[in-house]
TrEMBL record:
<keyword id="KW-0175">Coiled coil</keyword>
<feature type="coiled-coil region">
    <location>
        <begin position="18"/>
        <end position="45"/>
    </location>
</feature>
<protein>
    <submittedName>
        <fullName>Uncharacterized protein</fullName>
    </submittedName>
</protein>
Amino acid sequence: MSDIGLIIESLHRAAARVDEVCELLHRAQGELDALRERMRRVLADSQSPEVARAHQISAATVEHLTTALMALMTAGQEARHRATTL
């Protein structure tokens, strides 16, 4: 196999791994969103600062997961694009 062929194969493998990580992050994001919703319903009447802080932390975590997911999806798309244009 030529060097270009090896590079293309490597890019496709990298994109496949990125897809796997994206799937895991997407699942974690969904589970955290569900947890936040349950917390919101159960603790809606609580004025405790700890409850507010827990909501802030979970919201920030979802935001970070979303950012990581989008970055990985972009990396996968770029790897696939590069593989098809070599």
